[in-house]
Amino acid sequence: MSETRRDASRGQQPSSGAERPRWNPRRCTEWVLPAVIVRRLRDRRVRVPLYAAAGLVLAGAAWIAVTGVLARNELLAAQGSLETLRRHLAQPAAAPAAAAGPPAALSATVQNAVRDATGHTARAHRLTTGPAWFPAAHLPVLGGPLRTVRGIAEASDRLTHDVLPPLARTVAELDSTGTDDGRHLNLSALRRVAPLLEQASRSASRVRADVDGLPHGTWLPATDRARTEFARQLDRITPLAHDAAAAARLMPSMLGADGPRRYLAVFENTAEARGTGGLPGAFAVLRAERGRLSFEHFGNDTELTEASTDVDLGAEFNGLYGPSEPTRTWVNSNMSPHFPYAARIWAAAWQRHSGQRVDGAFGLDPGAVSGLLTASGPARLPDGSAVTAHNVVDLSERASYALHPDFKRRKAYFLDVARTVAIRLLGASTDPTRRTALFSALHRQLEDGRIKVWSGHAAEQRELLARSFGGALPGGSAPLAGLVVNNAAGTKLDYYLDRRLTWAPGRCVDGRREVTVTARLANGAPVSGLPPYVVQRVDDPPYDTRPGDNRLLVSYYASAGATLDGATLDGRSVQLSHGTERGHPVFTLDVELPAGAARTLVLHLLERPADRPAFVLRQPLVHPLRARALPGGPCTG
Predict the structure, then answer these.
(1) Which of 333, 470, 617, 627 has an alpha carbon within 20 to 30 A of 169's alpha carbon?
(2) Hey, CA dihedral for 100, 102, 105, 111, is it positive or negative?
(3) Which residues, 6 or more positions from 406, have their beta carbon under 8 angstroms from its beta carbon?
């Protein structure tokens, strides 16, 4: 036998120049697959079911792709309906009441938008259920994005069925029966919708928790982005549902459904900073009876100058603020950022001064008044000039000092502004064409902490402490970053104060987290041209100052259990005084802040490790605090 034939008979490659054998796929298959399998594949009874199964898989994939696109379109349409809802609710707050239409039209618009959104989300939910979606969503690895899509559709359906309709019904109830005689709130209507709002609040919490449990970080980034955006929307809706339920529980009793109530409303001047916001100035006594609101008295801070109290707020409070005598000095009564402390002092001071007990207290500043005037429309002063959303902050905290240099005339002017604005807002609350817009604006100011509420009734106060408008210094072990300033010079220069705060966790040391806090304070006051009352100082510092120079007590409220490892001011080491308030260490430094200058305070802390950024305490002043809290994480190893 030749070498070529011998090589071929062994299955080897023939030598160069010999004819190559043709490739035979049938023989190749026989080489690779066992003979039994090959025979079964040739068998039509086996081949047809395999082809059918493959076809079903392809059909299922196509079905998922098509219905997924359709479901996405439905969810986008639902989002458009909800945006229409948001726009119509917000429109009256940004436009004259006539542009919003009558209350019945607004209620119909709200309910139609909710109805449209409900239909779209129901279709999206149906499109993502069935025999194709369920098994595909439970495939290992590959099914993660499909589970997320199904979860978003289901959560959207529950949101529009269980959460939004009670909110829409509340708008309809309050608009259709908001006042019995056009002059007071119908508290019975609010009590009727209270159970629905409670259910909506619970449903919103469950939906938010379920969305947190959906897969994320999958192989499909678009799905992850959709989940993140939906969670962000829920973060806006869920607190709204909670606040609506709390309002339905609290408002009837607080507005006098079970007997008359009186409240002290204090206007805080944020041109001179205090812990809760600004210097307590003008005030009013508000009466509520069966939903009807009226003002019984207006006054200014000079009326309560001598109204000392015997309120005992504990040794920690006295250790921090005792030298300033906040329980005996009205203008220092709110140095602590914990609003219930100030409210208790205010209530006791009014009782000592007038003999009249109040059931609670409110604190609000010109920024809050601006937000409310956006909805109510301008207020007209006795001299014919207008107080508007655009000028009230500047008018009350800057321009008035130049317009009225005389002390008594200026105090009377502040009182005119407070009275005129209060009566204007009170009228808007019973005006059917403005009521919804005003309530929407009121909710925004409460949420932002520019309006704070305290009740002298224990059950109500427990509810308020859990809300942002309760003005409480947070308790518990969660990380906290609180920059608080108190004006120590007696100037009105905090109108020009700019604040920035950065909370940056670092490495772990013996199970504790290093945290660097950087606070930058800038005094933008001009060096000339300001009225004498704005720049005059009552602190008599032992060093030379110029008009426009300011002085602040700068306090940092740290996380519970934090210790200070060192601090610098403009790069130089400084010693801070130390105290404690409601479980939080408080580190304080007296800082001179010249006009046009900026100073940087850096604190090096050791804190308990946490898996989330710090909660930022935002003291409401003229210019909002610009803050960043960077993520940290638990200490490991």
Answers:
(1) 470
(2) positive
(3) none
Buried b (16+ CB within 10 A) or exposed e, 234-268: beebbbbbbbbbbbbbbbbbbbbbeeebbbbbbbb
Q: Could you tell me the pLDDT band of residue 17, with boundaries at 50, 70 and 90?
A: very low
Cα distance between residue 38 and residue 498, in whole Å: 81
Q: Hey, which residues does 607 pair with through a beta bridge?
A: 513
C-alpha distances (whole Å) from 85 to each of 88, 93, 99, 171, 369 are: 5, 14, 16, 12, 25
Q: Is the pLDDT of residue 11 over 50?
A: no
Beta-carbon neighbour count of residue 273 at 10 Å? 29
The pLDDT of residue 8 is above 70: no
263 to each of 356, 417, 418, how far by Cα in Å?
11, 19, 15
Give one DSSP letter per residue of 498-561, joined into a string: EEEEEEEEEEEETTEEEEEEEEEEEE---SS---HHHH--SS--SS---TT-EEEEEEEEPPTT
Distance, in Å, from the CA atom of 486 to the CA atom of 336, rounded to the nearest integer, reads 9
Query: Which pTM does this prediction carry?
Result: 0.84
How many whole angstroms separate alpha carbon 464 and alpha carbon 454? 7
Q: How far, in Å, CA of 373 to CA of 97, rounded? A: 12
Alpha-carbon 440 to chain mean position: 15
- If you search the block for the tokens 């992850």, which residue do you land on? 224
Cβ atoms within 10 A of the Cβ of 184, count?
A: 20
Residues 518, 628 contacting (CB under 8 angstroms)? no
Summarize the chain as % helix, strand, coil (round to 5).
50, 20, 30
Closest CA to 426 of 473, 379, 463: 379
Which residues 6+ apart lie within 8 Å of 547 measured at CB? Answer: 527, 528, 530, 535, 595
pLDDT of 38 reads 54
d(C-alpha 417, C-alpha 410), whole Å:
11
Confidence label for 24 from pLDDT (cuts 50, 70 and 90): low
Helix (H), strand (E) at residue 16: none
Q: Which two tokens stand for residue 307?
A: 């109204």
Q: What percent of the chain has pLDDT over 70?
A: 85
Q: How far, rounded to the nearest angstrom, does the alpha carbon of residue 39 sit from its chain's CA centroid?
A: 69
The answer to whether residue 346 scores a pLDDT higher than 80 is yes
Q: What are the helix (H) ranges across 430-498?
A: 435-447, 458-465
| Amino acid of residue 218 | T
Distance between CA atoms of 121 and 153, rounded to whole angstroms?
A: 7
How far is Cα 152 from Cα 248, in angstroms, rounded to an integer?
29
Longest dimension (CA), the chain: 130
Could you give phi then psi for residue 516, rounded to 5 degrees? Answer: -110, 120
Is residue 100 scored above 60 in pLDDT? no
pLDDT of residue 477: 83
DSSP assignment, residue 337?
Answer: S
CB 576 within 8 A of CB 536: no
- Dihedral angle sign, alpha carbons of residues 473, 519, 333, 420: negative
Of 266, 278, 391, 332, the C-alpha closest to 400 is 391
Neighbours of 25 (CB within 10 A): 7
